[in-house]
Amino acid sequence: MGVDLREFVKPVAVEIDPRTLIKKVVAIDAYNALYQFLATIRQPNGEPFTAPDGRITSHLIGLFYRTINLVEMGIKPVYVFDGKPPELKVKTLEKRRMIREEAKRKRLSAMKRGNVEEAVKYAKQGAILTRELKEMAIKLLDLMALPRVQAPSEGEAQAAYMAKKGDAYASVSQDYDSLLFGTPRLIRNLSVTHKRKLPGKNERVEVPPELIELQKLLKYRRITHEQLIDIAILLGTDYNEKPIKGIGPKRAIELIRMYGSADRVPGVPERFKEIYPEVKRLFLEPEVTDDYKLDRDRQPDIEGIVKYLVDELGFNEKRVRKALERYMKGREKRKQQTIDDFLGGLI
DNA sequence: CTAGCGAA
DNA sequence: TTCGCTAGC
Question: Which residue's CA lies closest to nucleotide B1 at its C1' atom?
């Protein structure tokens, strides 16, 4: 979820051709990606896809085919997984659970009325990414020999850190929080074909990948990174509720310019002033780690993947093998590129 | 979300 | 080739 900075960021967001990411490492917010797959890859009745034993597979369908497309194109994905959420986020997580329960009630009621479309809508809202689903994704990534990073706390913070260090070119997430964590580049809507279903409607629209550069945003808005965080805090983040009603991005900038920081804005509740320093610290100095390696040396376990996806989870073998062929070709091509670059460097 | 297929 | 639709598990 996170902060809604869409309007704030829009003027500097630029559409990019995914080919501009060739040979670049992109740090993908795994939670965000898996959640997205889980919510969108559904059967016509709104139910997720499942293995014969009942385990959900929608997230793996997305992960498998999307990742292979990226690799085939020459992009180097690394998935970053969440660790332990900060204390202040626990309330947000509880609120999300309430929303899911509410969605479940609405789905059942829509079903009783025979309103399939509405039932499907609420089924998607009720999507929940369990530990088991996450473990399945990790198992698949390891079999595919794709690098992954376990963040100590927030995955987006870890991805931003890796991008800041230069280990990744950009963070990939639908959420804007990465910018608050200081990622120099945020990529949204990363996919190879850009067709996406419009929520509610049955039409599809082109949603091309877009790049948001932090420095460009700060320059355009004539603010500092710290002020950006304060603006987000006024709008409400995963760690704090919106302190004052009726404040959008426009007013938030003015208020931060006028008063310097969010806790000094007149009218904010005492409770807000109390948690403010900690909220700000969570964005400025999030818990991250250097304990990761993005090695490219491991080889994918093709038969292991087939055993897992086909024998255990019921994927279609022909499809899986065809995709794996594309995957291996993509990896080979990339290896050759790397060798070429190396030789080029010697000349 | 993506692949694949038949229609335009 | 591109478009539109369906199936995927």
Answer: A62
H or E, element range at A251? helix A249-259
CA(A314)–C1'(C9) in Å?
Answer: 6
Residues A73 and A332: beta-carbon distance below 8 Å: no
Instruction: Write the pLDDT tens digit of every residue in A59-99.
Output: 999 999 999 999 999 999 999 999 999 999 988 788 778 87
**Structural domains in chain A, sorted by start:** 1-221 (3.40.50.1010), 222-285 (1.10.150.20)
Residues contacting residue A178 through CB under 8 Å, at least 6 positions apart: A29, A156, A159, A160, A171, A186
8 Å CB contact between A187 and A209? yes
Strand B protein footprint, C-beta under 7 A:
A 36-37, 40-42, 61-62, 65-66, 68-69, 191-197, 207, 319, 322-323, 326
CA gap A234, A228 in Å, rounded: 10
How distant, in Å, are the alpha carbons of A20, A169, A263 from that of A70?
12, 14, 43
